Amino acid sequence: MYKKLLLGLFFCLAILGTASATDWDVYPGDSIQDTIDSASANDKIIVHDSGGVPYTYQGSINIYKKVNLTSSGNVTINATSTLNPAVKVLSSGSGSTLQGFGITGATNNYGIELDLYHAAGGTTYILNNFLFNNKGGILLNDADGTVIMDNTISYRSGDGYGIRMVNSSSNKLSGNTIYGNDTDGSILLQSGQNNLLENNQLVGISNEQRFRDNHPG
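Above: the chain's sequence. Below: its structure in token form.
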């Protein structure tokens, strides 16, 4: 009897341990943030356009749990306020993926902000997004071990940086295309180390403004 109970307990634990993540679908009229709030860690959230027609979801989102957030079709996230990033990834959301979105509306902030102080959720991926009409592109604040890859960034002339890393180390920036200006540098590195930059294309930026290391402000 005892052996049967023990085997049953092991079987239940095995099922729980191998339970698959849930897929969530977000359609026009739904809220991306409400879906994140309802999802569990490791779930996948698929955000759809309007039946093949480009669609813009209004409202900034906070990713505070580990999710895979990806677009299906032409989907844009527009910031709630010009003062707020359109997407903010918090330390409790480390290990998340953000893939395939248009990111806009943060004309007085960065389009995407990663604030990952003491994060322990694994590698955070920012992949194949198009950032436009923001003060700056992507801000990494105390963010270590992230992958920023294949994004296209166009930031406001004279206002910001394409990618800015503050106290951030061991990140990979690869295959990004940044359309900038000669007022500010396109990639700013502050108080970080062991960051890998490879195959990034910088357009409209003179050589002396392409990279700045430990530039104040």
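The chain has a mean pLDDT of 86.
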